[in-house]
Every structure is written in structure tokens, then in C-alpha cells.
Design brief:
alpha/beta
Length: 181
């Protein structure tokens, strides 16, 4: 049984509203290139405010625009949900995004469920996009098999914008939100 989730994407989460400043430009370019040639298998990492969630959601929007089915799971908000129920049937999607995977690290039940999900997605040719603050090699994942699977993903670092880029990003968001209203 699939659990219905009260998770929706913000209206402004797209590549158009994301400023690819110098600290993220190479990773955004690699992400978009990988997204264009599925299956995408990537791990975004960076500090809070670097744009991890925005980029995962932008990828979801791109898949949706192409007629594909996606699921976006903010694990920090969903860690109390039984993982076997939450992750069941996701191999029928075109893209699975696991945001803040570090929120469930060390939880044996979650780690085993994610290991099995990774294998099911690989077998089905489903794109997987994962995010965390730290790169996979630095995450304190207990299950060695999950650690090796995460380390096999394309690792894309994200940095915080400098003051100039932050101002440009705010202006971009303001222009885009004005057009949406």
C-alpha cells in the first residue's frame, strides 16, 4: 500500500529561478547534462542554503515537463514514516529524489530500505538524485553496502554564493515571482 504524501513542490522551484553562480555552475551543468540522458544517478552535497532542495525540485519539474512521473521525498520531514511503506513501488517512477539523506543516517531500518530501493531503481533504470550536507564518503552511514552505493553516484558539490551572487539570486527570484503573480 502506497502512503499518500502531503508533499508538493514550490511553484518557483525550477532551473529558471536558480542562479548558477561560480560555486555551483559546474555541478548544475553536470546535473542538467545527466538529466538529459537518463538514468541520472547523482549525489548533491553542500551546506544549508547552497540550493540542494531547489535543484532536486528543479529536476522534478524537468521530468514532469517531459511527461515523466517523479517523487520528491524530504527525508528530514518524513523520517518518522515507516521506510518500507514510503519507498514501496518507486521503481515505477522516472525520477526519485531523496532530499536530506543525512536525516536518516544511522537508522538501520532506513538504511536497509534505502539500500534495497537503490538496487530496485538500478534494475528498473530509474533516475536517482540524492542530497546531503556532506559528500557520501563523509556520511556516517552504518550499512557498508549503502555507503558503497551512495559513493558510486556522480558526486556534485555545491557552495554557498558570495554576497554578489546572493544579491543577484535574490533579484532573479524577485523578477521571476513578479512574473508568476
Amino acid at each position: 500500500m502506497q502512503i499518500p504524501l502531503p508533499v508538493s513542490l514550490p511553484d518557483d522551484a525550477s532551473f529558471d529561478t536558480f542562479l548558477a553562480h561560480a560555486g555551483v555552475a559546474a555541478s548544475v551543468h553536470a546535473l542538467r547534462a545527466a538529466l538529459a540522458a537518463p538514468p541520472l544517478q547523482a549525489f548533491l552535497h553542500g551546506p544549508a542554503g547552497a540550493g540542494r532542495s531547489h535543484l532536486l525540485q528543479a529536476c522534478c519539474r524537468e521530468v514532469e515537463a517531459r511527461g515523466g512521473v517523479f517523487v520528491y521525498l524530504p527525508l528530514a520531514e518524513l523520517r518518522s514514516v515507516p521506510p518500507q511503506e514510503l519507498l514501496a513501488g518507486l521503481e515505477s517512477c522516472a525520477l526519485v529524489c531523496l532530499d536530506d539523506i543525512d536525516a536518516i543516517q544511522g537508522d538501520k531500518q532506513w538504511e536497509e530500505a534505502l539500500f534495497h530501493l537503490y538496487n530496485a531503481l538500478q534494475a528498473a533504470g530509474v533516475s536517482l538524485l540524492v542530497s546531503a550536507r556532506l559528500p557520501p564518503a563523509m556520511l556516517p552511514v552504518v550499512l557498508p553496502d549503502l555507503r558503497s552505493r551512495l559513493q558510486s553516484l556522480l558526486v556534485l558539490p555545491l557552495a554557498l554564493p558570495d554576497d554578489e551572487a546572493l544579491l543577484a539570486a535574490l533579484m532573479l527570484r524577485d523578477r521571476k515571482s513578479t512574473r508568476l503573480n
